[in-house]
Amino acid sequence: xxxxxxxxxxxxxxxxxxxxxxxxxxxxxxxxxxxxxxxxxxxxxxxxxxxxxxxxxxxxxxxxxxxxxxxxxxxxxxxxxxxxxxxxxxxxxxxxxxxxxxxxxxxxxxxxxxxxxxxxxxxxxxxxxxxxxxxxxxxxxxxxxxxxxxxxxxxxxxxxxxxxxxxxxxxxxxxxxxxxxxxxxxxxxxxxxxxxxxxxxxxxxxxxxxxxxxxxxxxxxxx
Length: 223
What we know:
Structural class: mainly alpha
Low-confidence stretches: 1-13
Number of strands: 0
Distance between the termini: 57 Å
Order of helices and strands: HHHHHHHH
């Protein structure tokens, strides 16, 4: 079976860069940090009996220092994370390579997400195909099933995106394309499941034959 030109679910939706997360966190907490810090510093340094106007002037004076310091800290944190991000990525890839269950877990996630997204497409035949694909016995430890899950994910992503932007006139064509593609995937999945069953049956026969040859029928019989 030929595979569509896609390698993984993460290729379709790349992860958010770590430096963006750090920068976003600084932006997200800027206002709360400003209010708490300036309020505490102002109240701590205000003279006894200071009026509201005095407190406001002190707060405005500290605001400039806070904004300058916070901006410098945010910039340093973001640049620092961007600098070490390649090393973190290498470590993450090595950890994934050492994890024998990573590819299987990714395949399982792809199928779950693809089937959930596919249910947003209209059509009775599509519903039947989605139910059929969902009910099949996926062996995510098998690289052939992993490849098929990649193809399923790509098909659903492409079809749902096209359906969302299609005109009323062209939407039926998108549904026909999606139905045909999912039908082929369902057929290919059925063949893989049948082949997996034949292999499992063969393994069971081999084990039974091994036990029979090793122990025989009379080894444990009473004398």
